[in-house]
Amino acid sequence: MAQLYRSCVRLMNIVFYAHHGVLKEEHTVGAKYEVDAELSFDFRDAAQNDDITKTVDYGAVYRKIRAALTHKKYLLIEAVAYKIAHDLLQDFPVLDKVSIKVRKRNPPVDGICDYAEADYSVTRA
Length: 125
Known about the structure:
32% of the residues lie in helices and 31% in strands. The protein has helices at residues 24-29, 44-49, 58-70, 77-91, and strands at residues 8-18, 31-40, 97-105, 115-123. Helix 3 runs antiparallel to helix 4. The mean pLDDT is 92.
């Protein structure tokens, strides 16, 4: 009987200060952004053999997320989430699916709001 599996690695609450937003002031002042990355792939071989070469390099994933968030200014956190997900899928062939959440703390909504969040997932074709 075939076994079903689901395995993923998560990097949670990666925090950066960046300059994204629709308002001009947001590009000047900046804000705190948080990112959660869920990286789905079959890591049975890595786990069974305790082999780091069969999994993803967390440091490389972190650097890719940091670059997407800090090297360019976007209007939308939706665009940031999309960019991160597609960059990770492109750069890490072992990945089957990438899910990214980008949170913007204290968004300018003319009221009290902890954060706005964009959640994007993409699966390798």
